[in-house]
Specification:
single chain; 120 residues; mainly alpha; 2 domains; two-stranded parallel ribbon; elongated; ADP binding; NB-ARC
Length: 120
Amino acid sequence: IKQYLIIIDDLWDVSAWEFIKCAFPENDLASRVIVTTRSLQVARACCSPHNEYILQMKPLSNEDSRMLFFGRIFGSEDICPYHLRDVSVDILKKCGGLPLAIISIAGLLASEGPKEEEWE
């Protein structure tokens, strides 16, 4: 048996974990399974009884959110047209510091170009 590293992204349900974990052999070969989830209950089920392995991510700061958002669209915040600055603040508030939300919205807006009505 070889070692393995498996990443399961965005697991939502404890029962899904119970089903998935049956596929992994129980041994001491230093294999790892990394699970991402939005649910603390799912995280606890995946780590039980080792809850010290749970890493709770924090949202990005306002500064890091802006850097990611503007970097994705313009390459730099300095290049953002002035007329889009206020609406950008509103968009970033709605993203709540979540990197995936910021990247998704930034990608959509980058394809639309700097049209304020599209951004609003």
